[in-house]
Every structure is written in C-alpha cells, then in structure tokens.
Amino acid sequence: MMVSILKKENILKAVFAVWLVLWVFFLLREGKDGQYRSLGYLYTHGYDEKMRHVIGDELYDFLVFCGENMPEGATYELSGFERFSVSEVRARYFLWPLKSVGEGGDFKIVYGGGEMTSPGYALYKRYGSAGRLFKRRDGV
After folding, report:
1. Burial of 131 (0-12, 13-18, 19+ CB in 10 A)
2. I want to staple 114 with a disulfide (CB 3.0 to 4.6 A). Which of 6, 47, 49, 80 is the partner?
3. Cα end-to-end distance, the chain, whole Å
4. Average pLDDT of 128-136?
C-alpha cells in the first residue's frame, strides 16, 4: 500500500495541488490596493484614458497642453518636479520626441507652484493652477 502512495504520479499531483492552492491564495488575498480594478480599467479604455489613469488627471492635462503649445523639435527643461521622481520621468516620456535638457532649453515647463518667473524666459502660456510654460527670450 505504501508503494502506491509514493509513486511519481501521486507526488507530482500533490505538488501541483499545493502550488495551485498557493497561487489562488496569492491572487485572492487582501492588500492589492485596487490592482484588479486598475487592470480592468486599463484593458477596457483607450490610450488617452489609460495615460490619464497612469499619469494623473492634472499632470496629463498639463502635459498635453505643453505638447500642443511647443513646436516640433523644441527643447525644454522641467521645473517643479523632484529630481528623478516618477512624475518627472513620466513627463519626459510623455513629451517625447521633444528633447529634455538640463538648462538652456527653448522652453521651461514649470509644474505646480514652482518658480513664478524665470531669468531669460518670458511667460508664454499658463495652464490654470497646474503650471506655466515659459519661452526663452531672443538674444539670451
């Protein structure tokens, strides 16, 4: 009787059953912070809604505004973001193919309540309280 219980097939079935139970527990456990709801939203909506969900409404609208108001091939520098933060990286990714530079860009994007003025730049456009877009003055 003991020999039939220890057959390879039975051992593999038991290991598979334990593995399956652990994965079901992993998928159903609490603490996912709406992960499945977010995945469902991303699968069922278009590109603009997906980007708005991932980036955030205010930042997405501001970046669309900046992208529409800067000419193709322009360079820009970002202000108002913590250096190397997720929001800064998302902003640079979203504004591609425009080139992000450290200093001296054609435009300066100020997000949030950052600098009100920028030396060498003039206010070009304002997007409510979300931010401002400055354009480099000629001759600077």
Report:
1. buried
2. 80
3. 91
4. 90
